[in-house]
Amino acid sequence: MSTLALTGGRVLRPDLTVDRADVLVDQETGEIGAIGPDLGDDADTVLDATDALVTPGFVNGHCHVAMTLLRGYADDKPLDAWLSEDIWPAEAELTPEAIEAGAELGLLEMVRAGITGFADMYFEMDRVADAVDRAGVRARLGHGVISVGKDHEDAREDAETGLEFARAFDGAADGRVRTAFMPHSLTTVSEAIYEEFVPKARDAGVPIHLHANETNDEVTPIVEEHGVRPLEYARELGLLEPGDFLAHGVHVDETEISLLAETGAGVIHCPASNMKLASGMAPVQALLDAGVTVGLGTDGAASNNDLSLLDEARDAAMIGKLAADDAAAVAAADVVEMATAGSAEAIGLPAGRLETGAPADLAVIDLSGPHLTPHHDLVSHLAYAAAASDVRHTVCDGRVLMRDRDVRTLDADRVRERAAAEAAALVERAES
Ligand SMILES: CSC[C@H]1O[C@@H](n2cnc3c(O)ncnc32)[C@H](O)[C@@H]1O
Ligand SMILES: [Zn+2]
Predict the structure, then answer these.
(1) Which of 30, 94, 104, 246 has its Cα between 20 and 30 A from that of 329?
(2) Which residues lie in coiled coils (predicted)?
(3) According to the model, what pLDDT value does residue 231 have?
């Protein structure tokens, strides 16, 4: 048995208490073998956690990782204009190579931010799955199905692609890759596609992930056309089963919150994207009060513009208080829970808890910076003060992905150069 020990630090327990302890990892099973004092003596590999906090790896519950290529390409517009005027025309010029390069860049950024698991909806997902395999993280992946702008046969073909990917790649990368059927949203995928493909996704045994209730502009036509709220319509389509999860959930009313709580479907809150696109303020405290599983996501780097769950946690706490008009709402412990166990539960990955027998998906946060001094409350620091650049080591499935800020699974210089070249070529194609 080969072992890894993280020594000399403090650990964040599942109940969000902190104590001084080492962590011993069985690298063959990829699980945490023990948490306690003096576990480093006989370990094969030792990671220094002195002056640091060992936390569960962060879980990014909603992303389009290859959109790193479009970071800074189009800003300061609302969702519909941003997508239709800038993003979708550029995405029409994407190649499989470009998507792989963008995915590697996003994965490099996420490993450096202590993110060990994520959910992703995009195109050419076999390339994204390969990049996930190389980077060493876990993921819930799906091909984004869209039917607007396509005739019914082309839309069916797109949905078949989504289903085939979900069937073929579930369990890839030694089980680190899981899949889902991922229709883009309730307004961009036709009722006929949902009617045909939701039962097929259920037969395939994969969950369903979609954008929902992101903007008022999306809610209004659904209410007008179907006479019910979007999540009631989703339920009529056979969506919102346990294991399903939706991104955003900004404009949800009380009936929809109850529906989420009753069905067990999860919500991935994306506060930075919601603020940047001025989509609105999600009622996160009301969702938590109702018992809905809530995780955190960055969305794509083009609407954020980074891939840091520590940033997202801070944003979630800030906007959650504004939305509830209550400084006690969406507290530090809530957002730390959402960035770890909440996201992991919502997207169905075995992660988010630092305890014996759990998968060894870990981030080690350096606490020595002036902005993290003094140490009154480390949960407060995770929520309000720590940054991605404070992550010292990242471990997933018992494997060291980053040591002392050196990412070992990806060649950082090569990844950056390749992505910059692909991004420049993409924009040239889109604008010529
Ligand atoms: C069909 S693949 C995913 C699709 O979603 C687009 N996208 C990126 N951010 C958002 C968002 O906040 N709401 C809706 N759609 C979004 C992305 O550009 C891809 O086209
Ligand atoms: Zn999205």
Answers:
(1) 246
(2) none
(3) 98
Q: How many residues does the chain have?
A: 432
Give the single-character DSSP code of 57. Answer: P
* Distance, CA of 347 to CA of 86 (rounded, Å): 29
**299: CA distance to ligand 2 center in Å?**
5
Task: Report phi then psi at 135, rounded to 5.
Answer: -70, -30
Is 152 marked as a binding-site residue? Answer: no
Q: 305 CB less than 6 Å from ligand 1?
A: no
Is 191 domain-assigned?
Answer: yes
Spacing, Cα 120 to ligand 2 middle (Å): 9
Q: Are 293 and 342 part of one and the same domain?
A: yes
| 427: pLDDT strictly greater than 90 | yes
- pLDDT at site 1: 83
For residue 391, give every residue at least 6 positions away whose Cβ sits within 8 Å of its Cβ, in sequence order, or none.
112, 113, 114, 363, 364, 365, 366, 402, 405
Q: Is residue 342 part of a domain?
A: yes
What pLDDT, in 10s, does the model give residues 218-264? 999 999 999 999 999 999 999 999 999 999 999 999 999 999 999 99
Q: What is the per-residue pLDDT across 170-228, written as a single tens digit (0 to 9) for each?
A: 999 999 999 999 999 999 999 999 999 999 999 999 999 999 999 999 999 999 999 99
Residue type present at position 269: H
Tens of pLDDT along 368-390? 999 999 999 999 999 999 999 99
| 307 Cβ inside 6 Å of ligand 1 | no
Cβ burial 1-37 (10 Å sphere, 16+ → b, else e) = eebbbbbbbbbbeeebebeebbbbbbbeebbbbebee
Shared domain for 242 and 327, answered yes or no, is yes
Q: How far is the CA of 384 from the centre of ligand 1 (A)?
A: 28
Mean pLDDT value across residues 83-111: 98
ipTM above 0.90, yes or no: yes
Closest ligand 1 atom, residue 184 Cα: 1
In a domain? residue 424? no
Task: Tell me the CATH number at 35.
Answer: 2.30.40.10
Please tell me the predicted confidence (pLDDT) of residue 333: 98
Pocket flag, ligand 1, residue 122 (CB < 6 Å): yes
Residue recorded with tokens 């962060």: 58
Q: Is the CB of 119 under 6 A from ligand 1?
A: no
Strand partners, 4: 25, 45
Q: Which domain holds residue 249?
A: 58-347
**HSE (side-chain half, CA atoms, 13 Å) at 154:** 6
Instruction: Report yes or no on 412 lying in a domain.
Output: no
- Smallest Cα–Cα separation from 331: which of 402, 382, 396? 382
